[in-house]
Structures are given as C-alpha cells and as structure tokens.
Write a structure and sequence with these properties.
Two copies of one chain form a homodimer.
Chain A (H helix, E strand, L loop, with lengths): L28 H14 L2 H13 L2 E2 L4 H4 L3 H13 L3 E6 L2 E6 L1 H10 L13
The first copy, chain A, binds a DNA duplex (30 and 30 nucleotides) through helix 4.
Amino acid sequence: MTAIREAALLPVADETVCGPVVTEVPLAEDDALALAAVLSALADPVRLRLLSVVAAQGEVCSCHLQEPLGRSQPTISHHTRVLAEAGLIEGDKRGKWTWWRIVPERLSAVRDALVVIPNGQHGPAG
Amino acid sequence: MTAIREAALLPVADETVCGPVVTEVPLAEDDALALAAVLSALADPVRLRLLSVVAAQGEVCSCHLQEPLGRSQPTISHHTRVLAEAGLIEGDKRGKWTWWRIVPERLSAVRDALVVIPNGQHGPAG
DNA sequence: CCTGTAGATTGACTGTTGTCGATGTGAGTC
DNA sequence: GACTCACATCGACAACAGTCAATCTACAGG
C-alpha cells in the first residue's frame, strides 16, 4: 500500500488550451483498491466508535460492545469481522470470550498512505 | 472532529467474569458520523486515484480526469462532487473549465483523527 | 443570437452494505 | 451427556453507492 503521493512536480496544465495532457495516475489501481478496502472498513460510525472503545480499553470482549454501541449481537459480530478482515483489530479467543485489540501498525499504515502533502503543506510548483 | 483516542488507561476488564463493565464510548456519535462521512468519500478506488492525480498535478480540470481514470464524464463529475462535499478538494471555475485542487488541511485533519495510538506504539496496561 | 463545448444533473440499473431475527457452533459448566 | 452461554452464520430486507446514457446549463467565440 503505497502513498497517494509519489510524484509531485509534474507540469501544471495550461490555462487556455486544456489539451490532451494524458496525465498518468500516480496511484496504481491495485494500491487504490487495497487502500479503499481499509478505508471502507473505517468509514462507518459504528465501527469508528467500536474502535474507539477497543483503543481506550486496550482489550474488549464482544459482549462489552453490544450495549454501549446500541446494536444487536449479530451486528456487532459483523462489524468486528469487517474490522478484523481489514487488519485493524485482532481477536483472541480466551475461554468463552473473544477479546479484541487494536492493530496499531495497521492504522498507522492507513495514516501514512494518506500523506499526499507533507503535513498540511502544499505547493504545486512555485 | 476529535480523535478516536481520548482515554487510554481505563481499567482492563476481568478475564473470568466479563460482567457489565458499562464501557463509555470515547468517540461521540456526531463525531463518528462526521469522520465516517469523510472516510466514505475517501473509501473509493476511483476517488483515491483522482485525488492522486490532483495532488500530483497541483491543479487539474475535469476534462483531464476522464481519460486517465477510465470513467465517463458524469461519473467523474459525481466523484469530484463527492470529494468536494467532503471538503477534500476545491473547485475553481475559470473560463470554460473547472480546476480542482487538494485541500491539504482536510486530509491532515482526517489523518489526525485516526490517531488512536501515538505512532505505532501500544500498551493496554503493561 | 447561434453554435460548440465543459461539466452538472437526472433517471435507471445494479451491486453492496447495515441491520436484525433465527439458527448454528463450540467451548465451558453441572 | 445435557445445558448454557458467547459468538458466528444465514436469510431477508431496506438503504445506499457506482456507473452510464440522456439531458440540461452556462460560458466562449463567431
């Protein structure tokens, strides 16, 4: 999963002609798909709140998610599955319960992949 | 849009009882919704590649997106609209064409909102 | 004005996703 | 071994999102 960036100093298009500049796409299709997949896992309010609980608690079993998130047991199970498949959380079966914890590197990777411009700075060429 | 984090040292749940710990959700529902909205805008491969083109070129008019992204004109228009409504790009109508550019602060805000654990570190309690 | 063009909007279609009730599964418990 | 409990899976349904053909809008140039 490479960064969106990759090139940053290509010729800026003309203001009057707007001809066929045949721009190449810095982000490859495969990388875009992979990144979009993780972002899709993140792009749900229930899952974001779920993540926030897991992050805050360090470790949470599924039974402790149902009530604070106000969703049914199958729905919670669905969301943990989505997050786990995206590599954002990891489940640990201990005894009767499944304990979930954040995979911090994964979230870092997402953040890094979103670095289009180094920390808020921007400048096409000038 | 606050960070997912917010608390990080709450009592870790017991391993045997798993009682009603009544976890509070650090991320408020409104914040989760707002963050999810921006992430939804990002969670599409075509839009990610579109962003990468805009970021690389500095400024791009819509007509230069259609071909490299392999999508029809209405589809490109749809995607630019989604990104613009999420505040991730800004459009500038100059003459016949609309020129798009990144709103870097917005992307930075998303990255910042995803800081659950300070840069890859983690540790529930010890 | 009339025409050509950039691109926004509409409408329709399809595939995907969030949700829950019902049911299955597999590990503890008596 | 039967029961219980935590969780996964299934089936169904409604809402949403990506796509394009067709159409509308607005601007530029004659």
